[in-house]
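Thread: Newbie trying to understand structure tokens

Hi all, I'm a second-year student working on a class project, and my supervisor (Dr. K.) asked me to get a predicted structure for one chain before our next meeting. I've only ever worked with sequences, so writing a 3D structure as a token string is new to me. If someone could post the tokens and maybe explain what I'm looking at, I'd be very grateful. Here's the chain:
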Amino acid sequence: MAPDSALWSFVLVVGLLTLTPGIDTALILRTAALGRHRRAWGVVLGVQTGVLVWGVLTSLGLTALITASRAAYEVLRWAGVVYLLWLGGRMLVDTLRHRGSTAGDAPGEVTVRNSLGEGWRQGAFTNLLNPKVGVFYVAVLPQFIPDGAPHFTTGVLLALVHIALGLVWSAALIGCARALRVRLQSPAARRVLDRITGTVIVGLGLRLAMTG
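---
Reply by user tm_fold:
Sure, no problem. This is what the structure looks like when written as tokens:
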């Protein structure tokens, strides 16, 4: 495959992947819609850090070893399941715990929840604990490295292209979420959003558990 053809084909494939709704989209929209834009960008940067790590590992051939080892894959898969169920379950429990509350965020809660670092951690863990991302990179990335091209360098550059597309799409999501903020001023509306997002994340965790 010619370099130009390989690049544009890769852009098409990962572009469609980026536009496909998933846990990353749900977390970014939910966080930004609640007005926590620093944390939303933290989630974005965390997700893209995960993409870079997967790209580097795949370019080194290490991801293939993980996916080839059933034990390693299962450990990673169940770690992802536990994390997703904990993340989504905590959102759902919090909405029930604060059902009767009429106030906004508790004192000090906004500072923690709007932390760039906390958002980064959440996004990075969500991406790195999803073995499906590693499987995708193992299956797809090598196909778009032209014959004779340096495997590691080209693989990392393609991962950076994926990251660039992800950043553009995430910026669009955060921009759209700003328009929802006015509608989410009341605690009741925020609880509804958290219930929807928590249910989606728990559902994805259960799906990951059932697709070994």
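A couple of things are worth pointing out once you decode it. The radius of gyration is 18 Å. The chain has one domain: 3-77+102-184. Feel free to ask follow-ups in this thread.
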